[in-house]
Amino acid sequence: MSTVSETTKVPVVSITAKCLPEAWEKAMLAVWDNGVDVKTQYDKPSDPPSKDATVIVTVEEPLSEPRIHKNFPGGPVELETYRQEVINGIHDHWIDPNAGKWTYTYHQRLFAYCPVDNIGCTNSSNPFEPVNQIQCIVDKLAETLHTRRAQAITWIPTADANIDDPPCLQRVWGRLIEDANGKVGLNMNTHWRSRDLYKAWFMNAYAFTDLARLIAEQISQKIKRQVTVSRYVDISDSLHIYGSYFEDAAAEVEKMRNTSFALRSWSSDHPAFKMMTLEAKEKLSGDPDWYAKSKG
Questions:
Q1: Cβ atoms of residues 239 and 196 within 8 Å
Q2: Cα–Cα distance between 122 and 97 in angstroms, integer?
Q3: Whose CB has fewer CB within 10 Å in the chain, the N or C terminal residue?
Q4: Measured distance CA(187)–CA(212) in Å, rounded
Q5: Phi, psi of 294 (to 5 degrees)
Q6: Whole-prediction pTM value?
């Protein structure tokens, strides 16, 4: 594997897959094989440069089965915890930059967006009321099915440029398409500044396609018509595999090349997955910090 970039261009890769685990595998293989070698701001001196590309992933049926990849770095408990973090805001109470804690969650930025001058300052200027941008998406699409204006953003330019860990997700955009038979489908795009392909992409995509499901259900309730989730497009300006992950990622890539996809994927109604997910839901409902506490 080359450790010196021989180009000044970031590769642009387009991938189409039917389901989420297939999409993650195709993205992994594409970046592993074609990504440019480039250092990151998180590297240790001994780390190889990352493999990096601009990647557009189209998932044609994002809620179809199999929906789970057995081998992403995590499991059903981590997946459910993260889904609830994005959808339900179970970790919004961790936001406390003055105490050295989180500066944001995606749930907060999407469901209660509120620009400020300085995230780390309690007395920072804050002339706006929080905006539920997801509700705005639902309302706009319900009011005008063909609108192109249904979007939510995360970036706060007055503050995020000056923090150490600014949001990777930048924007969520949705549009409804009605076919000749009157069927209505939600098409959703997410746009990401930077993305950890090996450890974060699958969990991100799982949670945000579930957000698409939620948006579609809420639109259905408002317009009194069924709205399904159509295709999902995931755009990353920098989708990367960190050099520090290469040993683990290489083993996973080898499995992707040489073993059956069926051995690496799960239906979301698989008994083992359902059992572990249900257990996580029950424990998180009693204590949103349960999983974090279990990890010490």
A1: no
A2: 9
A3: C
A4: 8
A5: -70, -20
A6: 0.94
DSSP conformation class of 119: T
The angle subtended at Cα 221 by Cα 285 and Cα 150, nearest 5°, is 90
Q: Say which CATH class 18-294 falls into.
A: alpha beta
**Token pair 């520090």 in the structure block, residue:** 244
CA distance 109 to 160: 12
**How would you write the pLDDT of the chain (296 residues) with one tens digit per residue?**
445 557 789 999 999 999 999 999 999 999 999 999 999 888 888 899 999 999 999 999 999 999 999 999 999 999 999 999 999 999 999 998 888 889 999 999 999 999 887 776 655 566 678 999 999 999 999 999 999 999 999 999 988 988 888 999 999 999 999 999 999 999 999 999 999 999 999 999 999 999 999 999 999 999 999 999 999 999 999 999 999 999 999 999 999 999 999 999 999 999 999 999 999 999 999 999 999 999 87
**Residue ranges of domains in the chain:** 18-294
